[in-house]
Amino acid sequence: MASLLKQVQSGILPAPPRTMLYGVHGVGKSTWASQSESPIFIQTEDGLGQIECAKFPLAEDYAQVITALSELYSEKHDYRTVVVDSLDWLERLIWAEVCRKRGVQSIEDIGYAKGYVFALTQWREVLDGLTALRNERGMAVILIAHCTIEKFENPETDSYDRYVPRLHKHANAMLQEWSDAVLFATYKVHTKTVDEGFGRTRAQGVGSGERIIRTTERPAHVAKNRLNLPDELPLDYQAYAQHFPEIKGAKNNG
Fold it and tell me: For 22, which DSSP code?
């Protein structure tokens, strides 16, 4: 057996990024992903009709998602980025698969919330497939998700609301841990103080329609940044991609 000391690696090891992009409705998440290098979409929701992109047929069950991942791995193609759009609709397919295997109508019918734990098996299978595409086919990965607002119980402060990906907490934790970057897409908003008279004022939101990505976690939103990105970027894929080291030797043609 070769010595592990002889296999020690050092320095930066370039690899295609694993990116989760979540954000408010209609901000342009799918359009952003379509600007990536030679993307192919695994679509689990019907929302790509007005976007020029390569896409698999709309997945109607979990097995079709796994088949798409398998064919991208085993067959010859020129795609450089795989996009899952969206995670929260994929979660519905995963829950349906758990119900099929357990012989129940709803994931809530599995007692003690164990259904959501069982669903992690399917999530791991998806992530294993995406990892193989990244490591062995040289493909970047983009995961698209919608957002929701949850109350965060911070042990150091009072609780407060924040934006998070719209996924069950178990899946959310797994997907965020797996990703190199968790990005929040939103509109840039400023506030100004408005005088209402009689000594009263109120804050008013003012927006120009500018679409941005926030890369660093703040009280208002979840984010993650392993890629040394600036705290804020325009919602433009090229502004994001310019921060990646060049990836060479991708084995993308099978």
Answer: E
